[in-house]
Amino acid sequence: MWARISASVGRHTRALRSTRAQLWRTPATVRILGVVSGAGSRADETQCTREPLPWLARLVPLAILLVAWLAYSNGAAGVFVFDDHTDITDNVAIRQPWPPWRVIVDQGQSGVSGRPLVALSYALNYEACGYSTAGWHWVNVALHALTALAVYGCVRRALASEPFALRWGTRALAIASAVALVFAAHPLSTGVIMYRGQRVESMMALFFTLTMYCALRAFAAPQSRWWPRLAVVSCALGTGCKEVIVGAPLLVALYDASFVARSWSAAFRARKRLYLGLFGTWALIALWVVLAQGRSESVGFGYEGMGVWQYLTTQAWAVPHYLRLALWPDPLIFDFGVQPISEVGRWLPRGLLVLALLALTAWGLAKRHGLAFLGAWWFVILAPSSSVLPIVTELIVEHRAYLPSAALLLGAALSVAWVLERLQRPLRLALGFAMTLAALALFVPLTRARNATYHSELGLWADTVAKLPTNARAHASYANDLRVAGRVAEAGEHYAKAVELAPNDPYWHANYGTWLTDQNRLDEAIAELERARELLPTYGMTLQNLGIAYQRRGESDKALDAWLAGLEVGTPAVAYVALQVHTLLAQRGREREALAALRRGVQWARGDAELLSRAARALLEARDPALRAPSEALAYAQRAFTLSNGTDAAALELAGQALTAEGRGAEAAQLYRQAAAVWRVLNQPARADECERRARTVTAAP
Question: What is the pLDDT of residues 26-37, one digit of tens each?
Fold first, then answer.
């Protein structure tokens, strides 16, 4: 009898489950439940369920914007730091937004070379507010807030759509809100926002998440034409920000094949145009890199001791470090230097953890487990910069975890929701809300405190040295700022520490040698600079300062040798070097070589008025008549006068001399009269009278 009763109960239970599943999928039920956004199409209705309190969904975006503002409202006082000087303050290509193609192609080796959309945003930012850091800051905060909104949209759409709607649909709003709010306030994002030059990361992240969001909308509305197009456009715009966007098409296709179409072939058959467009954006990435000639000074195997294996071992340590920071962001370190992590005891345990997580992600994807996609999100976004191609100036950087951290935050939120689902709904909502507020109450003050370290370069490097005292680059950079601040003795200690930590780095030897030269400790200075030259013979600063040290020690031949080498590769003060070389060669009667040195200097420093005037005079007054070049001298003199904004009367005189030498007396007289007028404005009547006399002389000449 009990067997018959048990069998009957089993049949009724299976029938009830079948009926419930069918009822859940009926259009009537879906219409009752509604769509996640409250404004979706009917196509969306077949995929989504409505969460309770739809009015709350309208407040969440405002809350995200408010949290982003609270977290970064004290960051406007931050300064440009580190590579910001190369990419922004010293980047002449961004100072004129028109024509836009010049902004794109003239980036050289800056951090926005091959990233045209970011370069254009820099140009527009400069046009709007110059170098006022507040203007740059609030643009970065706006990009971060928009990215947080896009993360909110992606999470909410995904959880409220098949196959996750049955389990998470009624909690999609709460979970997505918690993830986006914590993402907006997370201290790990400070490196992307306060370090102005990392706009490349936040802009890429924005278009990456928008690509995913538009794809999710396209999956939910198969008849829509606009959502697939917007996904492709978002991905294409992302290619103009950072090459990491290369992973967006892969993640879209992976999500489709795993959870929507249920197979790769079905996904491509259903959405062929979408994937042709998305994967077609890879050609744009290649185009931008080719047009900009890449960033060969920071990407590749150009550093001694840096190869595939050294980079891999370093990333094996770094990736778990990023994982930890995404969950507990302390300590945050601005710069980790350029020393690879090669000690087996440091990287092997973490490397094994990375391999285990990769294997678990692959297994989960094969089983179509939703959490495995979060692992894919993490690894695919990190792969371009944390795999085998070294970014030698940034071995470990926290901003790489900016967008991947969203996956960990979602994983944490789902774990909390899984624990809380055993409670009654009112208590569950209250506890979830309280835990989100607690996370915000913790993270917002931490973020604001971290912002304060960016208020001065000196403070930022002091913080870095304190947290990572083995970082040679941090010591050298801190020393540079100490010297600027007038704390010269302290600077020397940190220059010496940088050399001690990285004895084979030519830059730190050059820095220390320069400091020793300034202290007139010439023997020590020359030893350091010669070591730097041995390690890197083409480093201009080494050659420039080595010449200065030898000249001060009275060894002009050795100074000349160093400076001549410096002119070939360029030096920071190339105009000074060219003038010194010209003087030394002229004293030795090597006039042709002396003039060649001036010409080489002008090639490097076309904006130096003093060098241009000196070159013009030397070409006009050469002892050997065969070496005189009045036409070339005229061009140099005219440029020098232009650079002076019309105040360099001496340059006008040189131009007059050049015209006289060419037999163009009438034109020369006109320039002499202009020079006389300038001299009178400058209260130099004797020079003015001399110019007027010359004007009369050349006019009277046959």
Answer: 333 333 233 333
